[in-house]
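Hi V.,

You were right to ask for the full record rather than a summary. Here it is.
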Amino acid sequence: MKKVSVVSLLLFVLVLHTFAVGKREVTLRLTETSTFIFDETTVYLDLGTSPFNSTEDGQKIFDTSSSAPLIYSFSSDNVSCFSNSYGNLVPNTIIPLGFKVSGNGFYSIRASLIDNFDPASIIRLEDRKLGVFYDLRQGNYNITINQATQDDARFFLHVSTPPVITVTSAHCNNDDGAITVAPDLSVRWSSVTFYDDSFNLIVSYNNVTTNVGYGSFSFGDYNVVFALGNYTTIKPVYVDGESVSVEVSATTTHTSVGQPVQFFAAATNTTNYLWDFGEGSQIGGIVNPTFSFDQAGVYDVTVVCSNAYGCSYTQHITIIVDEATSLAPVAEEGISVTAQNKNLNVIFSKPLESNYNLQVFNSVGQQFLSAPLTKGANTIDLSHLASGVYIAHLSNEQGAFSKKIVLQ
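Predicted structure:
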């Protein structure tokens, strides 16, 4: 192994510092706690360089005349380094460390720059003498040394890759989205817990060392919480969706023959639109069409929304069309239309200038009743009708009035 000169080392440090900006690295500091004298070694884990190369890594120079503590990492060919590039981070990365102290005392080892790593990447110091794995995110690791010591086999730095989270979209029924977590097998997570976007618990797994997941998600935002002892970190996850939904509206639901009505479809995950206006006419490929009806009646207008995944959804809106007239629809003021115990109550608070005709339709335009109204207060028995949503339509020579009712 060719040694590097002091000048080369200094030049190397400057170049490596520039190259390492924004990269994942961890610096370990060994401190003699009574004197605060310390030494450091730095390991780079994603520079894409080979383990120990004289132009990439910095070999540790041991000063035998100094009583300062020393800490160093080892390259793959067992060269002690103060600056060490270990290539790309891979699962269960283990880096051997050595240390040297000139006498007994209290010492601490701390890690800095670990915020460069993913929060779910666990960085631990293994003390093989004591059989301890210590999470360096928790602070300093403290030890007592009873005599002058150099030990190249006691401490090892363990760095895990963050769990890989795989997300599968929710399909047409919007109930089969999946989230799968594949952890670095060197870490036994205390728990991996799935929450919705309001942190309501969905499912939790304990002592996790293998893949875990859940497969009944609708599309939306979720959170996966990883816990290792007292340490926790949260991974937000979004489950995409393929299901179609649509809400339909119109400029009016009560019009007259020949008057244009514009329809609106507020849809998600939709690429195709097919409108059916309930009287034989269809329009495709238009989100918000305009249509006018040629005949009076009650029409069930539908839109079928679909996409390339084979998902579709149908929504309805009922349009009441009166004969063309120069009169405006009857105002709701003075007319009370209510349903109770399958009785329809129609009350006119003002004297009737002319009789009304009452028609009752279901939500798809089928007529179930037609009767004249001649009194100010009218009760109509609808017990023969099934429970559901209906439309009561009142009309006379002056105009027309409609109201949606619900029969229980």
